UniProtKB/TrEMBL annotation:
Transmembrane segments: none annotated. The lineage of its organism: Bacteria, Bacillati, Actinomycetota, Actinomycetes, Micrococcales. PANTHER family: OS09G0287300 PROTEIN (PTHR47623:SF1). This is Histidine phosphatase family protein. InterPro entries: His_Pase_superF_clade-1, His_PPase_superfam. SMART domains: PGAM.
Length: 169
């Protein structure tokens, strides 16, 4: 059985000052500072990522574009409209449809769905403020996500040093 790593990344802080639609809301200055820190943490602690699945919202796409620029080998990115304003169950459907050849996947979406998904998969509440990462692991095919024990390997908002939770420290 293959080990799967699901990295949940909540988009960076968005800018509420303009009069744009929720879908088009850009990142705030703080978000522009947060996103590369998330990418640097991923580069340092995860390394290879097989696929990124990103909400179509501008703030989620921008977060991932900035974060992935920190990676040595950015993965293919798939924008999935189901990631926008999704419930935990809707996000679980996205996860269960991931290709089995992808062992490490990052999902860049929104709250409350992303925090609810982490709880649904792990059985424990994981706060997901903007730019927070939660690294989850389970064994088996993606289609069985939520049916198998899932472990939280790391959680937090970079630049916090979470290496010890991944067994590097």
């Amino acid at each position: 059985m293959s080990e799967r790593t699901l990295i949940l990344l909540r988009h960076a802080k968005s800018d509420w000052s303009g009069e744009v639609s929720d879908l088009e809301r850009p990142l705030a200055d703080r978000g522009l500072r947060q996103a590369p820190l998330a990418g640097a943490w991923l580069a340092r602690n995860i390394g290879h990522i097989d696929l990124a699945v990103v909400s179509p919202a501008h703030r989620a796409r921008s977060t991932w574009e900035i974060a992935e620029a920190e990676l040595t080998e950015p993965p293919p990115t798939r924008v999935d409209s189901r990631g926008y304003a999704a419930s935990a169950d809707e996000l679980l459907d996205v996860v269960r449809e991931l290709p089995d050849e992808a062992h490490t996947v990052v999902l860049v979406v929104h709250n409350p769905g992303i925090a609810d998904l982490a709880e649904l998969l792990t059985g424990q509440w994981t706060p997901m403020p903007t730019s927070t990462l939660a690294v989850l692991s389970f064994t088996g095919p993606w289609s069985e996500a939520g049916e198998r024990p899932t472990v939280v390997l790391a959680t937090g908002r970079p630049p916090e040093d979470l290496r010890h939770r991944l067994g590097h420290g």
